[in-house]
Amino acid sequence: MIMLVTGGAASGKSEYAEQAAAMLGGNKIYLATMRRSDEEDERRVSRHRALRRGKGFLTVERERDLSRCEVPKQSTVLLECLSNLLSNEMFDERGVGPNRAGEEIFAGICKLTEQAKHLVIVSNEIFSDGVPYEETVMQYQQILGELNQRIAGMADRVVEVVCGIPVMLKQEEKDGSLAVF
């Protein structure tokens, strides 16, 4: 099962995704993508670790190069988050750069779907403000939007978390039909 969980900053998407992944069972892998660069980043990582404590997750840090990540067969993987991963691939000097980032990340996600029984992917919803940005930020938004669409297309379930409330956007039923809300 593939689930995409989106939402704005501090919307509750991470907590929802963690709860969903914890309920799916099996070996639980938390695939952390945040590159820490300051004290605020360290505080965010500490907060997320505290939220996961006692839920049985094994944390694997993977800031980039997703296609080289190996996870146990039949595991439940929580990828937190696609937005950080894209930023790392686009802007980090060790990343693949903007021309290849989207394809590299999508290839890595496809590889994870072949390994894991369940894949829960968290991504930020950054498209609602309507403010024009500089070219590199617009390029980042474009690539993230394309990744979100591709993943949503292959996902069994797509959820947007708004003000802590999960809103089901897509759910594939057991018979293969789609229930879209």
Concise summary:
The chain is of the alpha/beta class and 181 residues long.
Rg, alpha carbons? 16 Å
Approximate shape: globular
Tell me the number of helical segments per DSSP (H or I, 4 or more residues long). 5
Strand order of the largest sheet: 3-2-4-5-1-6-7-8
Could you characterize the architecture of this molecule?
This protein is α/β, with parallel strands linked by helices and 181 residues long. It contains 5 helices and 8 strands. The protein has helices at 13-24, 39-52, 82-91, 101-115, 135-154, and strands spanning 2-7, 28-32, 57-61, 76-80, 118-124, 157-162, 165-172, 178-179. A hairpin with a 5-residue loop joins strand 7 (165-172) and strand 8. 34% of the residues are buried. The mean pLDDT is 90.
Structure characteristics:
single chain, 181 residues, alpha/beta, Rossmann fold, eight-stranded mixed sheet, 5 helices, 8 strands, 39% helix, globular, adenosylcobinamide kinase activity, transferase, cobinamide phosphate guanylyltransferase activity
Topology summary:
Layout (H helix, E strand, L loop, with lengths): L1 E6 L5 H12 L3 E5 L6 H14 L4 E5 L14 E5 L1 H10 L9 H15 L2 E7 L10 H20 L2 E6 L2 E8 L5 E2 L2
Parallel strand pairs: 1-5, 1-6, 2-3, 2-4, 4-5
Antiparallel strand pairs: 6-7, 7-8
